[in-house]
Specification:
about 80 residues, mainly alpha, 2 helices, about 0% strand, flat
Length: about 80
């Protein structure tokens, strides 16, 4: 039986955590004076798209991933 934290339980946990950390660091960089915002835009989109499925327990069981706010252009 796999134990909590075992890669068999959550094979993408480390990747998810690393990607979220990188997005956070990129957001801090973007707020710095002289930040290259073209770089931030390109890298943030790439990082966001590369996010694996969130680890189990990240969101409540009844969380609706499609229930977010309406975005401009969405029907």
């Amino acid at each position: 039986m796999p134990k909590e934290g075992d890669p068999a339980v959550c094979p993408n946990c480390e990747d998810f955590a690393r990607t979220v950390l990188l997005l956070g660091q990129l957001a801090l960089y973007a707020d710095m004076a002289g930040a290259d915002l073209d770089f931030v835009e390109a890298v943030s989109a790439s990082l966001a798209v590369s996010l694996p499925e969130p680890p189990p327990g990240t969101f409540p069981d009844d969380y609706d991933t499609d229930g977010g706010p309406a975005y401009p252009g969405d029907s």
